[in-house]
Structures are given as C-alpha cells and as structure tokens.
Amino acid sequence: MLKSHSYNLPPLPYQYNELEPYISAEQLRIHYEKHHNSYANGANGILNSLNQARISDIDINLKGMLKELAFNIGGFKLHSLFWKNLTPAKKSEKMPHGEVFKILEEEFGSFERFKEEFNKAAVSAEGAGWAALAYDGEIKKPLLMQIEKHNVNIYPTFKILMVLDMFEHAYYIDYKNDKSKYVDGFWNIIDWEEVENRFRN
C-alpha cells in the first residue's frame, strides 16, 4: 500500500485582526481559510488521484495532472511563506537589519531603491502572481522574482526571503483595484526578523 500524506494549513502567527488597518480581519480570514485552503485541498486531491491510479494501475493524463499539481503546491507553499513574513504593525521594524540590510544596500544601492523596484515588480505582476525577494547563494546576490500564477518564472533552488501575494483575492476586499495602495501597506507589516532568519538558515 502506498503511503498517504497531505498538506495542511499552518497556523497563522497572529490573530485575524492584528494586521489591521493594512489587511482587515475579513480579508485575511477569507484569504487564509478559503483561498490558501483551496490549494491544500487541490494538491491533496491530485496526490490522492495519483495514488489511486498507481494502486489500480490506471492510465492517467499525467501531463495535465502534474501541471495542476505544481500550481496547487506552489500556491500552498507561497502562502505559507507569505503569512510568516507578515507581522502586526506595532511589531514591524519597518526596515531590515543585519545581513539582509547589507545585501540590499550592496545590490540596489539603497533600501529605498530596493523598495521602488520591489513595488514595480509587485504592481506589474500580470494577472495573478507574486513579487518575491530571493537569494542566490552561488553568486551571493539578492534578486527580485516576479512569479506568475504560483509556479512560473521561479528561479530554481533560490532561497525565497520575502513574498507578496498579488492575486486579487489578497487585497480586493480592502483595496478594490488599487494595487499600489495595497503594496504600500505591505511595508508596514513585514516581519524583517523572519526575513533575516530565512537568509541565515
């Protein structure tokens, strides 16, 4: 019998109302309970179908299933990263420190220049996607990623330090179609300690 494992929602590191006024309790609850959970369920359903096909020796549309599996696993994993790089505004240090601050200053020239480029990457993400700060340990360089969907334009093996969800489901209740205002609010609730931990580990 093949082993059966499943993806489960990680607990949020704060209460639903603790990211206000930048992300409302209603927005966060729907985003987490409905959308993040749908990616977990989607991935689990496909894994179960693959498992059943192997047990019963049934031919399947493997190409289509793997494409859908990558989308759902990508959505699940990116959301899990997203929740953890957020923190209530009263706890956010508003700027990075330590090694992350140094590498951003070295690469972008200033923290403000990094913010400007990150904002542009976020707002111009096509349709549904993510803006991310990643790090290539091979060349010791931080790079921006503009991820489409959950799994396109990702740099393989790069360490993801920080992500911002740019799907409409992440901001529409609070900001309607004003993506720029949503992105501006993001800078008030970043957990830079978590970003630093990801860089170091």
From TrEMBL:
Residues 6-86 form the Manganese/iron superoxide dismutase N-terminal domain. It catalyses: 2 superoxide + 2 H(+) = H2O2 + O2. Mn(2+) binds at H31, H79, D165, H169. Residues 97-198 form the Manganese/iron superoxide dismutase C-terminal domain. This is Superoxide dismutase. One of its GO terms (molecular function) is metal ion binding. Its EC number is 1.15.1.1.
